[in-house]
Write a structure and sequence with these properties.
This protein has 388 residues and is an alpha+beta fold. It has helices at residues 17-24, 34-44, 48-62, 79-89, 94-107, 171-174, 194-199, 213-220, 225-238, 244-291, 300-321, 329-361, 364-368, and strands at 64-65, 91-92, 112-121, 124-137, 140-144, 151-154, 157-160, 178-180. The protein has a 4-stranded antiparallel sheet. It has a two-stranded parallel sheet with strand order 1-2. A two-stranded antiparallel sheet has the order 6-7. Helix 10 (244-291) runs antiparallel to helix 11 (300-321).
Length: 388
Amino acid sequence: MVSFSLFTFGQVKSVYEPIDKQVSKIPSNSCNSTEAIASYIGSHFKTEREKIRAVFYWTASNISYDIKNIATIDYSKSSLEKIQSTLETRKGVCIHYAEVFNDITNKLGMKSYIIDGYTKQNGKISPISHAWCAAEIDKKWYVFDPTWGSGYVSNGKFVKKINDYYFKTEPSKIISSHMPFDYLWQFLNYPITNQEFFDGKTQENRSKIYFDYIAEIEKESKFSEEEKIDAEIVRITKNGIKSNLILECLTAKKKESAVYNQNANIGKMNTIVADYNQAVSLFNDFIYYRNKRFKPTLSDDEINNMIQLPKEKLLNCQKLIDTVGSVGGQNLAVLASLRKNIYDVLKQVSEHESFVKEYLSKGKGARKGMFSKVNWFGVPLNNQDDFL
């Protein structure tokens, strides 16, 4: 995700100068990890206001915009990998600035999130996406863009110049230039639509339905990752797909949701495999006991339970397997095999169940004559390693 401000704003002497000077004194050996940076900041500053300024200033002043590698971002890298490479090279694009800022902030015990969206520069919508951050400071949400706050690009070169406009910015102000894909992260009670952002209509409109973003953020914090993505998809769609950039984001979210759903279904499969194997093991115990001509002697109830328990477990497996959704092409054959195995073993169990019913209906003398010399063979377990 790449986007960059070409603006600079006239600035007076910063009220944050004492904090910035202290941050500038951080030893180089305390800048090798976000843990070390957070530890330094935490030991030198007390309030959330001071700490968040220290995080912003360190990130904006120590990372340079990596113009040469704008088009070679490796999206497969994890957050940890992005952070580590950024700390090592002291270079990055918007996502690297955002990852570092977000991680240090969270390590200091403050709530922070990375926001994905797009921007408007010089009155024009940027065709590329951007990443920035938001943090809750003293129980209020503010927006931080350490990328745009670190300087600007001029004639193809990065010029480092701290821009405090993008530090602790009011959501109602920055919405004129920074538009999240998901309107939850506008931090507005009357979120604007993508069309309104395109049209430059970002003023508060109280004729809209009131949106309690604080309650929604709190509710979503309790969601699973899959639930969060599904909620994002709903909101992104609701706010209008007004460009290919927004459509690309929505498509990526849907693919991500599909992966979570598929992994959840594979998890269901593996649970069914475990239950199936347990049922087969119990059934094999019964077969062994039948081959021993029901020796040693057990009560009728115990004998009946020996066949009923695996049957119940297999019936439950048969019921659950119908609830498994997409598992990916590579697992379709395995799922079909598991379904067939459950059916086949249930058929065998039913045959043995009939034998038990007849056996239990007879007297002691007649029961002995029911056993033939033929040995029954056990059923093999299902190999759970087949599932990916």
